[in-house]
């Protein structure tokens, strides 16, 4: 129920970070590109000034938001990885942006994540502050067997809270407004755009904001998605324990265990630094995942220092990222759009790519990055389908079949090139193709993810957790 409706000015601002650059003095507006984000993909092609917005940009045409300093900023819901990066990209292109976040300040939960080197290509120096370790080797264990894979390009171990802080700082430097303590409630199309309703979390009052475009970066249980008519999505439970690294594990090596009698998924141990790591698993249900993890920790002689956990969506098919409501546009990005690789349930790099795609769509009406992202997510879905019903003998055979050429294929290609990895693996060892085919046929036509029956279905990975 709406208790009280306040109409607010669009720029109710709370700043984070230390940068003195505000909206009016945004680097975009004085023409000086800020430091960082040097590797950003989105550019104004054909423009001499890459930060200039083009006259044919739809939002400028619609008059809903523009570099001319008009009101009605784009509203990004959720100040986390995907939402903040979308805000950076839009603000950098001269689009006025408000980021509305339900928490009362920027205090993201710390979480150790592993991502591919692609994060560096997308974020440039902006992401460096959050990198705590680089991974050069993977050890894959199953039933007393082990296969080692050395990476040509290291994976990155990152601290999520540090990444979110960097993105928030950068978004503000480009001129985005961060507004905390605002919980998205609902939206409606009408007139020339959208009316969006937020709860002010401090006093419970309601406020309305008008805009031409809303971007839902509000995570797996996205309210923006529900409000605009997207269906709910299946999620998996990820839980990991912070543990001391065992003395026989080098800080640049990740261990993965396939133990199908415990879980159809896998366990991982990722070193955060020379002393600590996170040992976790993807579970079908949160409580069961915790029990399995504790049993595994005990079996391997680890003591949990603390636990980190949460729910991640399971990609079961491409989610169109845009809906039109009257004259307004609603977009989804990151976990809200299930932009997660289902082999590994890694959503950081794919969420960043989704942000690039949504920013491209808003600014220029093109979505080239989204097409590539869709192909990638679909390839991961096929791998997961093949692996989902693997038994212990299947995993043993998989590890045995990882011969030298197959391992080289895994070394050279990152998990962001799933199709290429699959092709090279099957080329180097055709029996891997047959094994995968058998995995697909074992499904007996049952889809691996059935949201109505199993909201907590999860993923299997051939290589690593996370990204
Ligand atoms: C334990 C664990 C380990 C993981 N490991 C990895 C890994 O190794 N590698 C990897 O790539 N990925 C990993 N992931 C997945 C990854 O963390 C997510 O895919 C990614 O963080 C999603 O980012 P996001 O910005 O889309 O959403 P979120 O990070 O979920 O952010 C959503 C934001 O929206 C806000 N919000 C929600 N509702 C509202 C509302 N109504 N109004 C306003 N604001 C709202 C929230 O407060 C939050 O700030 C892991 C996840 C977990 C739980």
Structure description:
This protein has 467 residues and is an alpha/beta fold. Among the domains are: 5-107 and 161-233 and 316-374, FAD/NAD(P)-binding domain, CATH 3.50.50; 379-441, no CATH class. The chain contains 13 helices and 18 strands. The strands form 3 sheets. An 8-stranded mixed beta sheet has the order 4-6-5-13-14-15-12-16. Strand 9 (193-200) and strand 10 (206-211) form a beta hairpin. Helix 3 runs parallel beside helix 8 and helix 9 (368-387) packs across helix 13. The longest helix has 20 residues, at 368-387. It is globular. The relative contact order is 0.15. Mean pLDDT is 79; it is low at 1-5, 7-70 and 444-465. Bound molecules: flavin-adenine dinucleotide. The site of flavin-adenine dinucleotide has 37 residues, from helix 3, strand 3, strand 4, strand 8 and strand 12.
């Amino acid at each position: 129920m709406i208790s009280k409706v306040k109409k607010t000015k669009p720029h109710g601002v709370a700043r984070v970070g230390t940068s003195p650059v505000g909206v009016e003095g945004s680097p975009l507006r004085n023409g000086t590109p800020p430091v960082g984000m040097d590797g950003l993909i989105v550019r104004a092609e054909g423009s001499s000034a890459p930060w200039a917005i083009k006259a044919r940009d739809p939002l400028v045409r619609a008059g809903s938001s523009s570099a001319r300093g008009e009101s009605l900023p784009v509203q990004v819901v959720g100040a986390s990885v995907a939402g903040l990066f979308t805000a950076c990209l839009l603000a950098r292109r001269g689009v006025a942006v408000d980021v509305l976040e339900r928490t009362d300040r920027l205090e993201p939960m710390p979480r150790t994540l592993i991502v591919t080197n692609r994060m560096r290509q997308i974020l440039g120096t902006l992401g460096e502050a959050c990198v705590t370790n680089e991974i050069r080797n993977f050890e894959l264990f199953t039933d007393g067997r082990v296969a080692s894979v050395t990476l040509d390009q290291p994976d990155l171990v990152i601290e999520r809270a540090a990444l979110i802080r960097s993105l928030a700082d950068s978004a503000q430097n480009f001129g985005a407004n961060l507004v905390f303590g605002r919980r998205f409630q609902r939206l409606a199309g009408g007139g020339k755009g959208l009316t969006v309703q937020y709860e002010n979390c401090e006093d419970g009052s309601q406020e309305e904001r008008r805009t031409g475009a809303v971007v839902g970066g509000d995570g797996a249980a996205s309210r923006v998605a529900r409000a605009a008519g997207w269906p709910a999505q299946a999620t998996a439970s990820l839980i990991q324990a912070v543990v001391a690294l065992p003395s026989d594990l080098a800080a640049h090596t990740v261990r993965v265990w396939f133990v199908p009698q415990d879980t159809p998924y896998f366990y991982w141990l990722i070193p955060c630094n020379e002393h600590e790591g996170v040992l976790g698993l993807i579970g079908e249900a949160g409580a069961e995942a915790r029990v399995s993890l504790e049993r595994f920790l005990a079996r391997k002689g680890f003591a949990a220092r603390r636990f980190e956990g949460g729910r991640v969506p399971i990609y079961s098919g491409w989610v169109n990222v845009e809906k039109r409501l009257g004259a307004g546009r609603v977009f989804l990005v990151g976990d809200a759009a299930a932009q997660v690789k289902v082999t590994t349930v890694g959503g950081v790099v794919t969420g960043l790519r989704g942000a690039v795609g949504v920013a491209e769509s808003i600014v220029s009406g093109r979505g080239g990055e989204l097409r590539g992202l869709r192909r990638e997510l679909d390839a991961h879905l096929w791998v997961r389908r093949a692996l989902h019903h693997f038994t212990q003998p299947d995993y043993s055979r998989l590890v045995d079949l990882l011969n030298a050429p197959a391992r080289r294929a895994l070394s050279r290609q990152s998990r962001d090139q799933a199709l290429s990895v699959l092709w090279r693996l099957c080329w180097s060892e055709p029996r891997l193709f047959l094994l995968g085919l058998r995995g697909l046929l074992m499904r007996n036509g049952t889809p691996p993810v059935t949201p109505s029956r199993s909201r907590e279905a999860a993923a299997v990975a051939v290589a690593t957790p996370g990204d």
